[in-house]
Amino acid sequence: MKRIYFLAIVAALAGCSEKKPLTPEEQWHGYCTSMGNAARSIMLDRQSAIEKNKAIEHANKIDDEFTKKFILDIIEQVYAMPEAQIKQDKDAAREQIKTQITEKCLVTPHDKLPEYKQF
Q: Does the CA dihedral 91-92-94-95 come out positive or negative?
């Protein structure tokens, strides 16, 4: 019984330990993953007949200029696609744009990590 109690305490303490701070590369990867998720959401909005001007209006509320520019570029890219292409296989279209934008972001030069909220 003492052994189980001891193991439970050790497990609890290990779960509460502090996580190591993320490296700048790990932070950038997280940002790019978030941008990919945003692209997927923008594609879903397009597939759900949300108008481009509504998407732009929402994007213009973003405070960080780097992120705002990136999101506006995603909107332009998604809304430039032919409707037949995005509605043929909706799930595949969302995953494709997510992957494409994440990869594009990862190779984008940057000086600092932009302010953003995870998607």
A: positive
Q: What is the C-alpha to C-alpha distance for residues 72 and 56, in angstroms, rounded to an integer? A: 7
pTM of the model: 0.78
Please give the residue range of the domain that contains residue 55.
Answer: 23-106
How far CA 7 is from CA of 10, 13, 19, 34, 111, in Å, comes to: 5, 10, 21, 37, 45
How many distinct structural domains can be found in the chain?
A: 1
CB 110 within 8 A of CB 66: yes
> pLDDT tens digits for 58-106?
999 999 999 999 999 999 999 999 999 998 999 999 999 999 999 999 9
Q: Does residue 18 lie within any of the structural domains? A: no
Taking only the tens place, the pLDDT of each residue in 97-115 is: 999 999 999 998 877 777 7
Q: Which of 10, 113, 85, 66 is nearest to 77 (CA)?
A: 85
